Amino acid sequence: MARLLLGVSGGIAAYKALEVVRLATKAGHAVRVVQTPTAQRFVGAASFAALTGAPVLVDEFERDPARGAFPDQAAPTHDPASHLELVRNADAYLIAPASANTIAKLAHGLADNLLTSAALAASCPVLVAPAMNHHMWEHPATRANLSLLAERGVTVIDPTTGALATKHEWGTGRLADVADLVAAFEAVVPAGARPWDGLRVLVTAGGTREPIDAVRYVGNRSSGRMGFAVAEEAAALGAEVTVVAANVSLPRRAGGAISYVDVETAAQLGDACREAFARCDVLVMSAAVADFRPAAAHEGKLKKTERDDMVLTLEKTEDVLTGLAAGRRPDQTLVGFAAEHGAGALEYGRDKLARKGLDAVVVNDVSQPGIGFDATDNEVTIVTVAGDEPVPRGTKAEVARAILATVDRLRAGAAAR
Ligand code: CTP
Hints:
By secondary structure, the chain is an alpha/beta fold. It folds into 2 domains: 3-188, 3-Layer(aba) Sandwich (Rossmann fold); 200-416, Rossmann fold (3-Layer(aba) Sandwich), CATH 3.40.50. Helix content is 34%, strand content 24%. It has helices at 14-26, 39-42, 45-52, 82-89, 100-107, 114-121, 134-138, 140-151, 178-188, 225-236, 266-277, 320-326, 345-356, 396-416, and strands at 3-8, 30-35, 92-98, 126-130, 155-156, 160-163, 170-174, 200-206, 210-211, 217-218, 240-246, 258-263, 282-285, 292-294, 314-316, 333-340, 360-365, 377-384, 387-395. Helix 13 links the parallel strand 16 (333-340) and strand 17 (360-365). The relative contact order is 0.10. The structure holds cytidine-5'-triphosphate. Cytidine-5'-triphosphate is lined by residues 266, 285, 287, 289, 291, 317, 319-321, 336-339, 352. Cytidine-5'-triphosphate binds at residues 266, 285, 287, 289, 291, 317, 319-321, 336-339, 352.
């Protein structure tokens, strides 16, 4: 999985760029699209936005709602310049179709729109896939411009020969096969380019709901924000991520790097985790799993007319994490969470680390205002055998990055032993 920035310039072949996005996202890549104003006369931004799951930009002065982030990344807290941030995040920049006019601008360093300014700012590999009428393709100016680009290290993906868009015209100028464009992109971003490429991460998120009857449940206030942030940050590092989501209604990342398994109850969460655990290298158990459930869920809806009061008998659920840890491999890294209330939070965290056989426990004191359940921010202490690491208050994405940095350290330590 890699990040593809796709620049679409004006020409009838712009419609084929939709297929490039479809194939690339199907292959698990995260894609952002920038278009020239002329390209928008051929294909509208809405189609690209729907396929990428991200905003499409045309103008350098247009505010990017995703702030330069790709679909697998969390947006930064500041507003960066789009032409710089998009190419900074991209693993490669493919311009397809590249019209004769755009090629001329690229060759001579013009930066008069977002597509061309991004190309000038790109330090990642740049690929250009020309598509135009054969007379334009054969013109000495186009030939010279493409030679100049190739000399500078730009990969030129030659057009193919065949019937052209204009009636009865035949020649060279058809955009290269879409699958070849995706393959050319993959060839310049070899697997293993990102630090967590090849690592499999299992994350649980949200809160379980244990049915009382057909419409009511015993639940908790966990929104799934922390777990989703961990999943998104792990995917951004290149990991293949599975999220077991317990009743999470947050937006999900398109692009295929994260797969979501929806569950409702602790028992379902346990089953889904056991199914995925053996394949994972890292488990981050951030879901708030019910410790008790109604001993017998009533079929249908309980009616208040039948009673003046009601006693619910609860029974213990299984401790999913303890069960998984009991069957762990030494090369797996296990992170638990402990949402504690008030004094003694760290002590409880240390106790869970030892009792559940974990590598780290992320402790947060949910008695503090502005953090924890359903908040966008968090402030935690990561407890490991090496000691306690306080993580200052920040967005859940920032806290997720700190947790993953600890996982990195733990894995490096385990590998060195
Ligand atoms: N957990 C779990 N299965 C449960 C309960 C909790 O897997 N039935 C996991 C949580 O996902 C979390 C960790 O265990 O990562 C700690 O959860 P917590 O509820 O704080 O721990 P408990 O051992 O249940 O302790 P407490 O008495 O504080 O509830």
